[in-house]
Amino acid sequence: MPMKLTGHTLLSLLKAHWAFGAALVVRGLEVVGKLGLYMLAARILGVFEAGLFFLCNTWVSASSTIARAGFEKAVMRHIAAELAVGRGIEARRALLGGALWVTVGGILISLLTVLFAEPLATLVFHEHELTVPLMISAASILPQTLCIFTAHALTGFNRGVAGQFVQNGLWPIITFAALAVGIHSLSGILYAFAFANLVGAVWGVVLLLHERRRLHDTAPPAGGHVENLPALWRTAWPLAIVEYVQAALNSIPTMVLAAFAAASAVGAFSVANRITVLIWVVIIAISTIAAPSFAAAHRVGDFDQLRALNRKARLAIAACGVPAIAIMLIAPTPLLHLIGPGFEMAAPALMIMALGQLVNCLLPTQDVMLAMTGHGRVLRWLNAAQLVSCCVLCFALIPPFGMMGAAIATALFIAQGGIGTTLAVLKLMPRAY
């Protein structure tokens, strides 16, 4: 039976409201850092080398996702859920086990990237000049993996704002600062990117050490026996598939476009895509703050709180995201001109992808709801359907239509994700929506 919406629950929602605002401030810092980084990098490197830079970033992001294998979200759920019922020792076991897995994964993927950089550059991306940048990018994979893992672990401790600062606030600012002080070569920027992720990872570990006092068993809440959570790897496995699919969705349009178009087109599309992806800044900021509360409320059966927090998160995302999308639709050319000359060619693509993000912005957070309430397998199948759509659309539209084909494909599978997860929550947990 769900518990009633008590004064404690209302206080939790009020705290969540302020947490949403704090998270958006941190994400605003990320937006400033990323926009500054993208604009300055594009102006310094030019369209061709900017394309190489964005390809390297895409590869690092995809590699880090593979290395984490879903353990970062599994750990976030386990920590929040176990602490909600006083099982600090189980939370500690999840934290240490997840840390071990992602560290091994990060080291392995880094080594493979160095070993296979040349065939990746020549056979996959058809850009021999990408070989050395890919090898340098390998230095970013393990730091980024640990940075994202520690951020999710902090979120499990209900320190979502600190977690988002570790994951998204530090590296854009540090990398942007490196460019501002005179690091203007592609190699130098990639080294700065690796250093920035390393700083984020170290800071995340330091913050986690301050939470170790909470990793002891306490008195469980009244209400009797609480069932055990599944093993960490069982939680991680379906979430890993989801993460892999999401990484593929983020990477496939760029990679397929790189195989059929010049690096300049890849660079312009990457900039437009990253501008629209900034809507994810709002969605992820609020969803991440809400995630541990989703897990904790579901753990104790408080569907009133679950529904209230879900609605508050959706409203906050729509209020913040829709105005930003309106700017992308009304003034795409001036927006791209701010990045640098030559990027205006991506204005139509920017508008199309903004429409896809509009659907995503109006139907947000339900993927996190599914992940935090033990419906990872459902989320996996929804993401598999997205992946099929992405592959079919990209290979059908990009060869004949180039950048516009990539934009149409991206908009369609993004919208599919928001619609699919919302329908799943309405079917599986209507009381949570």
Report the span from N to C terminus. Answer: 17 Å
Average pLDDT, rounded to a whole number, is 85
Q: Radius of gyration, rounded?
A: 21 Å
Low-pLDDT sequence parts? 1-14
How would a textbook summarize the main sheet? none
Q: Note the beta-strand portion.
A: under 5%
Helix content: over 70%
**Number of DSSP helices?**
16
The string of secondary-structure elements, in order, is HHHHHHHHHHHHHHHH
Estimate the global geometry from the Cα principal axes: globular
Number of domains: 1
Q: Would you tell me the structural class of the helices and strands?
A: mainly alpha
User: What is the number of E strands?
Assistant: 0
Search tags:
globular, 433 residues, mainly alpha, 0% strand, disordered N terminus
Kindly describe this structure.
The chain is mainly α. The protein has one domain. Helices cover 83% and strands 0% of the residues. The chain has helices at 7-68, 71-84, 88-115, 117-124, 131-156, 160-180, 186-209, 232-260, 263-277, 279-299, 303-330, 332-339, 347-362, 366-372, 376-401, 403-428. Helix 3 packs antiparallel against helix 5 (131-156) and helix 4 (117-124) packs across helix 5. The longest helix has 62 residues, at 7-68. It is globular, with a radius of gyration of 21 Å. The two termini are 17 Å apart. The model is unreliable at 1-14 (pLDDT under 50).
Layout: helices, strands, pairs:
Blueprint: H1 7-68, H2 71-84, H3 88-115, H4 117-124, H5 131-156, H6 160-180, H7 186-209, H8 232-260, H9 263-277, H10 279-299, H11 303-330, H12 332-339, H13 347-362, H14 366-372, H15 376-401, H16 403-428
Helix pairs in contact: 1-3, 1-5, 1-6, 1-8, 1-9, 1-10, 1-11, 2-3, 2-5, 2-8, 2-10, 3-5, 4-5, 5-6, 5-7, 6-7, 8-15, 8-16, 9-13, 10-11, 11-13, 13-16, 14-16, 15-16
